[in-house]
């Protein structure tokens, strides 16, 4: 009897330990073949970390197809000051990605300076492949180190999860990059928009102190950003 009690206590302790470490408990993978995102569920009360599954009988091949990365974007359209356009293929555009933990994007850059400005992906590591042109890329670590280099056509570069990073075209020809992420929805936070385009806005005096400038400069920069 005493031995049985010890075994039961040990088993309970193991279960509690696994419960405290979800990454070690249960089956971390999908328990069904597919879980195509059911966008219509957003009209109801159900909210989960991702999308609920569409009924299997309503799934079609088109749920797993997206052609948005095939065509080059107009990097000059609408008075675009950055000279770059990001075309995203995530779960919000490709419902078949739901629960699969991957996504991609295409970035088109104008020659000589087209820039994907400083931003971060809180949910994903990014691996970038330069399909055309040459890019100067970089990211900044939490210790303030700037890691940067040129990446030619055919080269790869990795941006660790959550690190602020950027890319800039440095060649005479337009550049194109394809990025892959280990998240179905990487989450993108652009530095300039976060500081100056948030709604309600970050207080002017806070930004003035952070940037070691005066409020007039902050307001001048803020005027260039549309509130979200």
Automatic annotation (TrEMBL):
Domain named Cupin type-1: residues: 73-219
One term under GO cellular component: plasmodesma
SMART domains: Cupin_1
Short name of any one Pfam family annotated for the protein: Cupin_1
The keyword Chloroplast is annotated on this UniProt entry: no
Positions with a binding annotation for oxalate: 116, 121, 126
MF term (GO), any: manganese ion binding
Key words of the record: Apoplast, Disulfide bond, Manganese, Metal-binding, Secreted, Signal
Binding sites annotated in the UniProt record for Mn(2+): 119, 121, 126, 165
Compartments, record wording: Secreted, Extracellular space, Apoplast
Signal sequence, start to end: 1-25
Disulphide bond pairs: 35-53
GO biological process, one term: regulation of root development
Family per record: Belongs to the germin family.
Matches recorded under PANTHER family: GERMIN-LIKE PROTEIN SUBFAMILY 3 MEMBER 3 (PTHR31238)
Record's subunit section: Oligomer (believed to be a pentamer but probably hexamer).
Function, as annotated: May play a role in plant defense. Probably has no oxalate oxidase activity even if the active site is conserved.
Protein name: Germin-like protein
Naturally occurring in which organism (per UniProt): Aegilops tauschii subsp. strangulata (Goatgrass)
